Amino acid sequence: MKKYLKILLISILLLPIMVNAASGKITVSSTSTVVVGNKVTVTVNLTGSDIGSWEMTLNYDKSYLQLTNSSAEAGGTVMVNSSSKAITSKKYTFTFKTLKKGNTTVSVKGYEAYAFSDMQEINLTSSGKTIKIITQDELEASYSKDNNLKSLSVEGYELDKPFAKDTLNYSVTVPEGTKSVKINAQENDSKASVSGDGDVNVTEGANTFKIVVRAENGSEKTYTLVVNVIDQNPINVTINDLNYTVIKLRDNYECPDAFNESSVTINDLEIPSCYNENLNYQLVGLKLEDGTIENYIYNNGKYDKYNEIIGTSLKLIILDYNGNIEGLEKTTLEINENKYPVFKTSNSHNYVVYGINVETGKKDFYNYDTINKTFTLYDNSNLKDVLQLNKMYLYIIIAFAACLFFAIICVISLLNNKKKIQRLLKETKRKMDELQEERLREEEEKQKEEVKEVKKPKKKKKSNKKVEKDSDENHEDE
Q: How far is CA 308 from CA 256, 314, 316, 339, 365, in A?
């Protein structure tokens, strides 16, 4: 490539010498700050009025940056090429992975370029780019902490007090029948964000809105705005120490599914309600001081909380079943943040509830799956089979326990008999020993007798000899 540039230079020398040489510049740009381990893109841009050929080399510190991608001709750091026509700019991009914390500069060295029209060398200027590599903690520490509002207002109305960024609670009063207002909130820092402002719906009485300002570093500040809609004749209700007002405008009260718009008379006023013929329920809307609207069953001046549970295909109202279900234990379970009477099954996540189907008005038992949050009609035939099986298992256990008990008795009896047998064996052995001793004595006596018998005949023979001798002597005498 150097050879190519030398040829271009020789060609330039052969051409008529021009008084003014062309000029251009090389700029290096990128993000000024990047976190260690993240990627950063560096752009090299060659600009001029009559560029024909060029050569540049990117220069960077490899201890801070690792090249991962390049648009240079050879895919590295050398940028060299020529154009078939005069151009005004040529751009290259390089992607690096940052390796460690610190400041490092990326620049271009060994650069030269030649004009397309006359092959003269272009006078170039070049500037580098310094990149600051920081840690994640340093980045987060640099984020703005400003979570204040610059201004807060309700369009067309005046707040109860002048706005101040450190004052968090405000209120405004609007005429009776007002259905919506526009809340204007402006963050103090452009890097912060605001939520809770804009067009909002309101109903009679107090309507509470939270305007949250989130700073760049994630910290939040909440401003509270209460929009009071004038109600000349409010109907106030206290339930479980909570203060409610009855919704009196139809536009402010929407009926739940399976209920139709209706009306009911309360304190001689016609109040919008919602009616379900299957349930014979008349619902009215009660609003808390914070603006939350809840459905209540209204019946002759009495208010009962309406808790509808929606399963996969069922909408139920759970009731308390006064009786018992054989084999199931009655307990309570929290469903949708409310506690209901249920029956516990052998399955840890299945319960049986008694309730009314909102769409059909039919009362029945339903199986509730706490994992899938679904209801299905309860089939007690399986329960009977389980109970029958449990009874069989109980009988088997009782029989086994009886056999075990009998075996234990037998073992105990055998242990007692063993002691008796041992005593009997000892007694038998003692008697046998006595018999043996007696037999030995008898043997000894018998042997003694035999010895006596043996000795006794010898004496008789001697006596006979004496007789014979006496006889011979007598015979001689004759």
A: 9, 10, 6, 12, 16
